[in-house]
Amino acid sequence: MKDKKKIEEKLGITFKDPKLLQTALTHRSYLNEHRGMNLKNNERFEFLGDAVLELIISSELFMKYPQKPEGELTAIRSALVRTESLAQESRLLGIGENILMSKGEEESGGKDKDFILANLYEAILGAVYLDQGLDVCREFVRRTVLKKVSRVVNQELFIDPKTRVQELIQAKYKVTPTYTLIKEQGPDHDKTFTVGLKVGKKVMTKGTGISKQKAEEDAARKCIKELES
């Protein structure tokens, strides 16, 4: 693995077992071109990291907001751990460039795809848990995802964007927004959808995502920014 020290500096963590870090950085496509190297991809680490992240976020929110009901805490947690949020953290850490993936995946922009970067964040967290335990994971999450919790709560960014944009559009235009599929690209296992949010016949914003639902949410968030700016 190249640049191990630089990666650890970005993460603020020195691994006791470097192989765990390498596995966390290995996308499944990489194995197709390196079959004889006895490597593992990061999907199991992602599974573990997802559970660790949910536990840490849940416990932190439970302690920080003792008066908030379960439904609101769930919505706040969902806003913090959604794909776009975790992808943003991977970009801020600058670790996307270190993902090991096939040439084809890289040429298609794989190192900057939201879902790959979000999975990378969870895989790194899974590796940290295996290497150093829950307390180190908690500090890592506090330095990354949890640093934006106050903004999410104060600006009510945890409210479902489709619900929020509908309220804004109904108040301003007296109509209900609709969504239309503009295009879908890629193979079945790796599709990207582009959806337009329409007010009447006018497309207000376009959103992209790995599902129609994600693309609609992206379009809704962009429209909220426009309407509130």
Characterise this structure:
This protein is 59% helix and 10% strand. By secondary structure, it is mainly α. Helix 4 crosses helix 5 (70-81). The model has no long low-confidence stretch (mean pLDDT 93). It is built from twelve helices and three strands. It has helices at residues 4-11, 18-24, 28-32, 43-64, 70-81, 83-93, 103-107, 114-132, 134-143, 149-154, 161-173, 212-228; strands spanning 178-185, 192-199, 202-209. It has a three-stranded antiparallel β-sheet. The radius of gyration is 19 Å and the shape is flat. A hairpin with a 2-residue loop joins strand 2 (192-199) and strand 3 (202-209). It folds into two domains: 4-154, Ribonuclease III domain (Ribonuclease iii, N-terminal Endonuclease Domain, Chain A, Orthogonal Bundle); 161-228, Double Stranded RNA Binding Domain, CATH 3.30.160.
Spatial order of strands in the largest sheet: 1-2-3
| Rg measurement, Å | 19 Å
The largest sheet, given as strand count, sense and whether it forms a barrel, is: 3 strands, antiparallel
CATH top level of the largest domain is Mainly Alpha
CATH architecture classification of the largest domain: Orthogonal Bundle
Low-confidence stretches: none
- The CATH topology of the largest domain comes to Ribonuclease iii, N-terminal Endonuclease Domain, Chain A
Question: What class would the helix/strand composition place it in?
Answer: mainly alpha
Strand elements, count: 3
Mean pLDDT: 93
